[in-house]
Amino acid sequence: MKCPVWLEQIRKDDQPLLINGRVVKKTYSYALIESNTYYGVHFLHQTNCPSEVWEDMSLGNEVEYNLGFTFSGAAAFI
């Protein structure tokens, strides 16, 4: 069973924690990424991803991303 992020999992060198996942849905403006480590899917808006990465991204691709938080909830960014 996947579990939430515990404080011990935050990197000690003050660098953002990188999460691995797989693209399970992609539209013209957003993608949903299913994490290999944590429960659920993470929302990735096109503006939070470099254009060359966005253009090459397709369903089933493995991606490495960071997770931030907005007023709407968790959001992935690359």
Alpha carbon gyration radius: 12 Å
Number of helices: 1
- The rounded distance between the terminal residues' Cα atoms is 26 Å
Indicate the percent of residues in helices: under 10%
How many domain modules?
A: 1
Largest sheet: 5 strands, mixed, barrel
Features:
78 residues; mainly beta; 8% helix; globular
Topology record:
Layout: E1 19-26, E2 30-35, E3 41-45, H1 51-56, E4 62-70, E5 73-77
Parallel strand pairs: 3-5
Antiparallel strand pairs: 1-2, 1-4, 2-3, 4-5
Account of the protein in words:
The protein has one helix at 51-56; strands at 19-26, 30-35, 41-45, 62-70, 73-77. The chain is mainly β. It has a 5-stranded mixed beta barrel. The N and C termini lie far apart (26 Å). Residues 1-9 have low confidence and may be disordered.
Summarize the structure.
With 78 residues, the chain is mainly β. The protein is built from 1 helix and 5 strands; from the N terminus they run βββαββ. It has a single domain (18-77), classed as Nucleic acid-binding proteins (OB fold (Dihydrolipoamide Acetyltransferase, E2P)).
